[in-house]
Amino acid sequence: MFIDFVPEDQTVFSPAEVATMLCISRRTVLRWIEEERLAVFRIAATVRIQRSDLVVFLQEHHHEVAQYAAGSEQGATPAETPNA
Predict the structure, then answer these.
(1) pLDDT band, residue 79 (cuts 50/70/90)
(2) 82 three-state secondary structure
(3) pLDDT score at 28
(4) Helix (H, G, I), strand (E, B) or coil at 12
(5) How many CB atoms are located within 10 Å of the residue 65 CB?
(6) What is the CATH number of the domain that holds 61?
(7) Residue 67 forms part of a structural domain
């Protein structure tokens, strides 16, 4: 499962780091944040995601994350991928 990709020695991540570790686009991570599906905390304009919040999100949405990861491998989002 995707939780295995979350480093245990790191407690906070940027949206770009989350995107890289999950093999999805940064824009997808930012959309989840905008939709308030992925919890974040902000310091001025800086957005960070706590490891614990990321783990909860991945447990609740692992099927969706897998679809996005598969779509990004093919250069498409799940909405653009047939049968997704």
Answers:
(1) very low
(2) coil
(3) 94
(4) strand
(5) 19
(6) 1.10.1660
(7) yes
pTM score: 0.74
Structure token digits, residue 37:
């599906």
Helix (H) or strand (E) holding 30: helix 26-34
Does residue 60 fall inside a structural domain?
Answer: yes
Alpha-carbon gap, residue 30 to 53, rounded angstroms: 15
Contacts of 40 (CB under 8 A, 6+ apart): 33, 47, 48, 49, 53
Tokens of residue 4, six digits: 């295995």
The 8-class DSSP code of residue 42 comes to E
User: For 22-71, what is each residue's pLDDT tens digit?
Assistant: 999 999 999 999 999 999 999 999 999 999 999 999 999 988 888 888 88
Alpha-carbon separation of residue 67 from 12, 50, 59, 73, 83 (angstroms): 24, 23, 14, 10, 10
Structurally, the chain folds into a number of domains equal to: 1
